[in-house]
Amino acid sequence: MMFSRIRPIVIKEFRQISRDKRTLGVLLLVPAFMLVMFGYALNFDVKHVSLAIYDGEGSRASRAFAESLLHSEYFDLKYRLKDVREIDDLMGEEKVRVALVIPQDFSKRLLAGREAIVQVIVDGANANAAATAVGYVNAMVQDYSTKLSVRARMRAGHSDVPVPIDYRPRVWYNPELKSAKFLVPGLIGFILMITAVISTALSVVREKEQGTIEQIIVSPIRPVELILGKTIPYILLSLVATAIILLVSFYLFDVVVRGSVLLLFGVTLLFLAGALGLGLLISTVADSQQVAFQMATLVTMLPTFLLSGFVFPIRNMPLPVQVITYIVPARYFLSALRSIILKGVGLSAFWDQMLFLLAFAVLTLGISSARLRRIL
Known about the structure:
This protein has helices at residues 2-19, 21-41, 60-67, 86-92, 106-111, 127-155, 179-210, 213-218, 223-253, 261-285, 289-307, 319-325, 329-343, 351-375, and strands at 49-55, 75-81, 98-102, 119-122. It is an alpha/beta fold. It folds into two domains: 8-43 and 178-375, no CATH class; 49-155, abc type-2 transporter like fold (3-Layer(aba) Sandwich). The chain has a four-stranded mixed beta sheet, with helices on both faces. The longest helix is centred in the middle third of the chain and has 32 residues, at 179-210. The radius of gyration is 29 Å and the shape is elongated.
């Protein structure tokens, strides 16, 4: 009996979506477009940093040390300086990001067994890129120093020279350290949250503006049935959009779902239920599609982008802001997505995150149902 009353609403909503090409584009095409744009534009990989070198000595040892920084994709040599004062102009004009200054007594200190001091000047305007560049230089200098130490001991007659620390790093889950693989799960949550909430928020408001809400009021439809009829089409289309996003991320960014695809869609379904419930709640408050769109954008875009851990680690935020992140549903969805897509783990690893998503879905759907009951 309930399904027979819900079915006409679902069919009507699908017809409305098919007639409104903008809504259909927002639900299916915009997510893939946003994924491509964000995936390529939002990149934290720091490579091909422009480098300037001032070699005050010009010896074979100083040239070998300078060359040790160039045998990688991290630094591109742009300038060999003859005067150290040129660094100010080059960095001020953003022609170089890092400058290496080798003193005149570099090889003399090495031959004397003393510490050779070199200066590395880094443009700190972009703090993240600067910190990464400093890390690259530090690792390369440590490697070069270890090689010099081993050679010195061998020249001293030690044929079997042990290396103090045999450092062999191994990165799990994202061995290439590609930012795209870190960002794609967050992009899925970010895109679905925005599109699902906005599209659903406009659905009931559209009924108000077109005057068809009065027909719904005099019909025998109950609020729960109206909610199900309104949300089912958007849930199905959002799941299709999720599949499109996963396919695009696989072919463009080589992101493979290591865990259960069925579990991934189950988690997505739970997240969408809460997001669509939030959209319906907004639609019961707003009186026009313009107001509904503004409210939906306000409560989804900034919180999901800033407070979900999508871009900025939550543990680095001030404590009051960390407390606020607990009410952002994308935080829990993102944690589950990264566990499934990158780590390939099961529900036991993030079941607590699912409880929060379930509570969010029940809360938003319950409140929107209560408000719709007052309207109907």
